[in-house]
Amino acid sequence: MNEMPNIEQATSMTQSKISASKVQVYYGDNQAIKDVDIEIQPRTVTAFIGPSGCGKSTFLRTLNRMNDTIDVCRVEGSIKIDGENIYDPKVDPVQLRAKVGMVFQKPNPFPKSIYDNIAYGPKIHGLSRSKSELDDIVASSLQKAGLWEEVKNRLDEPGTGMSGGQQQRLCIARAIAVSPEVILMDEPCSALDPIATAKVEELIDELRENYTIVIVTHSMQQAARVSQRTAFFHLGVLVEEGKTQDIFTNPQDKRTQDYITGRFG
Amino acid sequence: MSEHTVSAYDQELTEMAGKVAEMGGLAEKAFADAVSALISQDIELANATVAQDARLDQIYQDVEVKLIELIARRQPMGQDLREITAATRIANDLERVGDLAKNVAKRVIAIDSDLQSKKLAIGVEHMTELALSQLKQVLDAYARKDAEVARHVQEADAEIDALYTSIFRELLTYMMEDPRVITQCVHLLFCAKNIERIGDHATNIAENVFYMVTGDRLPEDRKKFDETMAEH
Amino acid sequence: MTDTTLTQRAETQSAPAPLPFKSILEADALTRKRNAAEKRFKMYGIAAIAIGLFFLVALLWAILSNGLGAFSQTFIKVDVPLDRQQIEAAEKSVVKTSKYRAIIDGAFASELTKAGISTDIPTKGLEKLFSSGAAATVRDYVLANPGAIGSTVTFDLIASSRVDGYLKGRVKREDLAQDKNLDAAHLDLADQMEDAGILEKRFNWAFITGTDASDSRPEQAGIGASMVGSLFMMLVVLFLSLPIGVAASIYLEEFAPQNRFTDLIEVNISNLAAVPSIVFGILGLAVFIQFMHLPQSAPLVGGLVLTLMTLPTIIISTRASLKAVPPSIRDAALGVGASKMQSIFHHVLPLAMPGILTGTIIGLAQALGETAPLLLIGMVGFIASNFPDGVSAGFFSPNSAMPAQIYEWAKRADPAFYERAWGGIIVLLLFLMTMNIIAIILRRRFERRW
User: Fold this and answer.
1) What is the pTM of this model?
2) Minimal Cα–Cα distance from C16 to chain B, Å?
3) Alpha carbons A203 and A220: distance in angstroms, whole number
4) A49, pLDDT greater than 90
5) How close A156 comes to chain C (CA, Å)?
6) Domains in chain B and their CATH numbers?
């Protein structure tokens, strides 16, 4: 799964996809994220780990401005995607979110048919001019998400009637359908059983070819399994970021060490 | 280092380290006994040493099972992962040390006569002292998680190699002088080789301790050059 | 791990003294006490429900026993010869209906003779058997069908409320002692007529479709016109409060910033829901009638006042159902790049729809049953004696509303009106039940899919 030599070559040649510097996030008077600097490599899975409330999900949500929906939330510093600051006043968050898709902790398909779930994004973004084009997008998204064989005969059945793992893959297919460049995943497997989790992880590994993936996870084993780079957050601070194998065998910071070995009281 | 949230994990790790330390003690003793049996031609001690090795093997098997269980149940990461893998390898090295000591003891029984030369005995004894001290030091370093001592031990291995080379030459000389002693000398040569190998195992352990503590590999800058090989 | 912690572990691991064996097959004192308390509580609950049911049954019984009478009416069948001379004479006179009454009296007397019923009551006294509106019925017929003059037409004329009451058992013979309108002879006659098939009790469509009548003719009063008035009012309420209420709640729930001003608005909305309805009535009187000069007693004004009253209910229930939509749905929509409005209109609102509809119907039902504010804008005093002429008149011309009509009837002296009031309540309840059923059907429709 972790074919590092190739990745290293690729990353050394290309620029980072997302580049954050001096990011501060405040909820009212509370500072949730302090001075986070991170470079996220393209076509790589980057995992954010850390204890609950460490700010990893908050930081993930700043990457596609999902925090905008919270009134008291304030972001400072700069986050650039392909060199463009996403907090520039000229940026429309709706356009940004088409470029940076998101998959959530709880599978949350719309209470509509499987087809409509996938077709909704392309429809509102005007990605298809005809019904047949839309059909193609739906089919290819489901194929990429490895769900096509399971659902091709029941596209008009409700998405909420599928199993948890299928629902989550449906959500991933829905995110893919709008052709994003980055996919953010907020604990995508926390509600799934190990087999469904394995399927999603396999999917993540396949998607790495075409997308930049950032995944927040509570499971260190999962981070170790799916990611090439891992970032450890603690108390709103990015403690350590590096190659996944280094983080899990020889972390440099004592806090990372304590966390990954299960020593946090 | 602070304790794990799951205290049973700590207990298991401590237990495992204790077992490895016990193996270290047993291996050390077996080695010392075997060599002193060799020097003093004490067949009884030699027999006892051979018998002792079964105990070491038993503990080694216990440790191995424990370590696999630990990996399966705790999914160790970071420092813990390194400790556990290091323990696996160290236990393996110690088991080999025990085997080598047993081999020396068996040869004592085979030689079954006084040593030809006092000088030779002193050489073997000196080499043993060195290897034994190496082994003691690495086991201490393991217990104290001391990377510096481990590095030092690795460097000191060169001295044992040099001693072995000199003993090798001496034995060669004896054999050329008097073909009747060839059997005894070959046994002695193997014993010396075993002692030298124990030194190598101590070095291995040192490397593992260093990795366990720092997470880095010891640089392989030492010339591992066996002069005896060059002559043949 | 240090030695001390090891010893601590060893200590905690040493097993405590084994607890004495306790069977779970028999309940101990505490459990028995707890179970008894639970049983008592269940009994309280059952008692409460029984009391509630008793009152419900009592209420329904009272309503039905008092009100069902309003749905039947006594009619007297009379063949009236429409003599041209008599009619022309009647049309010339000042009080035309009294002449018509004489015609009916004559026809009725001969009808009795024909049926072989003899009576001591003079012909003039016979008219007390008829409703005072009977003459108008004949006259209206004559005016509508001038061709019928000269022939004999069979009329089903409404009996007077006393005769009607006698047949329904409301009026007893002993009651007549103090009654100057009717004496025992009339009742004997009524019995004979009933035997002869001249007097007949039938279902009273006129009560449902008819209009209100003056104090002296309770037998002619119907709830139809005020039903139309209520309907127009409900239309106003529905078309104003639903869009305004839903728009306001969506804004408050999804868009409005959290600050002191919106807090103030929220508190006020909650408080408005608890404001007595009469306050809305006086507000309507001051603003809509005195200031804006909208017509008095018009369903439009009534609707406006009731809209004000219904809005808080709709806003509160709409906001609650918007809140109940899981945030994950909003996240999902935003996550695929929907704008805020798209996420609300495509996903949140459809999911909140059942709740919104329920709230709206509850609000409408409340408004439908509201009487107090109508008192103040003049929808009570008005006698709804005719139907509106068209849709715009339906909104703008004076009318009454069902609860106001019921209140009006209940106020009047004649016990026949009292019966009408109960009957009106039955109609009102049926109206409400219909609305609730519509609400349930709509809910089902919207919830149907998932």
Assistant:
1) 0.74
2) 20
3) 18
4) yes
5) 12
6) 7-221 (1.20.58.220)
